[in-house]
Amino acid sequence: MRKVPFGESLRIIAQGSMNWRAGRPIVVSFEVTDSCTCYCRHCDHGGPRDMSKDMKPADYKRYMEVLRPVVVQVSGGEPLLRDDLEDVVKNIKSSSGLPYLILVSNWSEMTVDRYKRLRDVGVDEFCVSLDFPDAQRHDDFRGLPGHFDHLGKVIPAAAKLGFDDIVMNNCITAWNIGDINANASKAEEWGVNINFSAYSPWRTACRADFHETPETLVRRWGDVPRRGVAREYFPDRREQLELLDRELARLKERMNSSHWITTNNTTLDATREYFHRGGTPNCKAGLRWLVVTSDGALQPCSMQFKRYGLHEQEKMVKEFTERNTCDQCYVSIRSYLDKSYTQLLTENVAEFFSFKSKAA
Ligand SMILES: C[S@@+](CC[C@H](N)C(=O)[O-])C[C@H]1O[C@@H](n2cnc3c(N)ncnc32)[C@H](O)[C@@H]1O
Ligand code: SF4
Ligand code: SF4
Q: Is residue 278 within 8 Å of residue 271, measured between CB atoms?
């Protein structure tokens, strides 16, 4: 990964410490549109949506002035569907270089020229979804024929420019547990990094309040209502967990001698525990990070549809975060920001803010 210049690193740490003490978010995830080019099995955002109410580029400056996060994710839906994405990025980035800006995207609309333009206006890191190491399963899972072949061309071409700022994101699901290491190898072959995150059933199984008494997480993987295909792949939970453990153990061995797998050991252990326990308690959504929806509402996370105004973060923390008992995801943001600040600084800053260089 790209080594962040020392001055920028210090600014990130200083501003991050201030936010931590003031109860302001460290990370804000802007969902810049709900529209998408894919129809993924694990997601509730698939397909085209009305984009007329999406916030305008200048609105993002206003949100940044109030929320002042150190790290911003520009996500969606599919952010590259916005023709004015470069203007959105310009309005988020300040002259100091902050925030550290991550574009989370499926890259179906990416070209090498657009990659260069987005870098020029301030994207620090490109996070690109990868679910399977082959065209048939990746395209089937994402509901977009030809997508994997497109990635196989544009990613190595962008990587060859040598900026080392592309990270594949492999969301571990019941469908791809056995492909964790093969996905890592695909990223290596394409000349980019890879990060691992965990599937949450909440996106597709339940959009409302969390009343149900959950069975184990893996059992519910078999009940994803939209497509309902997991059961035949993994009929036995114990088998799934054993396979997960084998894949993660192998990944850890490779992490010791590799530079391109960016998930760290403790995050991987916590992700494994999330799957085994069927949840992870003590979520800080709304406090340490939050989501801004495409039409400008603050939400604690992308799976809790409790909407607040721009100036209502404190209210959200009181009403939601302080009473939150939801443990039903372990997305990347959580895996970093649930930690204590000391732990975040000493252990995770290097990975999360990409301080690790290829030489490290
Ligand atoms: C919602 S997408 C938005 C950005 C872009 N469209 C993409 O797919 O990368 C952001 C990330 O969320 C992941 N995701 C989707 N559904 C999920 C779920 N149910 N649990 C955990 N992560 C999920 C995707 O795989 C992707 O890496
Ligand atoms: S995961 Fe991303 S690409 Fe897939 S449907 Fe959701 S928003 Fe679209
Ligand atoms: S655990 Fe936290 S971030 Fe995950 S769905 Fe629940 S409230 Fe949202």
A: no
CATH class of 6-352: alpha beta
Q: What share of the chain is helix, strand, coil (3-state, %, to 5)?
A: 45, 10, 45
Provide the pLDDT confidence category of residue 224 given band limits of 50, 70 and 90: very low
Alpha carbon distance 280, 335 (integer Å): 10
Q: What is the DSSP letter of 322?
A: G
Q: How far is the CA of 29 from the centre of ligand 2 (A)?
A: 15
CA distances for 344 relative to 17, 261, 299, 335, 338, angstroms: 11, 19, 23, 10, 9
172-191 pLDDT, tens digit per residue, is 988 898 999 999 999 999 99
Is pLDDT larger for residue 353 or for residue 270? 270
Q: Best of 29, 34, 35, 40 to mutate for ligand 2, by most ligand atoms within 8 A of CB? A: 40
Distance 329 CA to ligand 3 centre (A): 5
Q: Which residues pair with 193 in a beta bridge?
A: 167
For residue 331, the CA-to-ligand 3 centroid distance in Å is 8
* pLDDT digits 0-9 by tens, 55-106: 999 999 999 999 999 999 999 999 999 999 999 999 999 998 899 999 999 9
Q: What is the whole-number distance in angstroms between the Cα of residue 209 and the centre of ligand 3?
A: 12
Ligand 1 nearest atom to the CA of residue 44, by list position: 16
Q: Which atom of ligand 2 is nearest to the CA of 43?
A: 6
6-28 pLDDT per residue, tens: 667 777 778 888 898 888 999 99
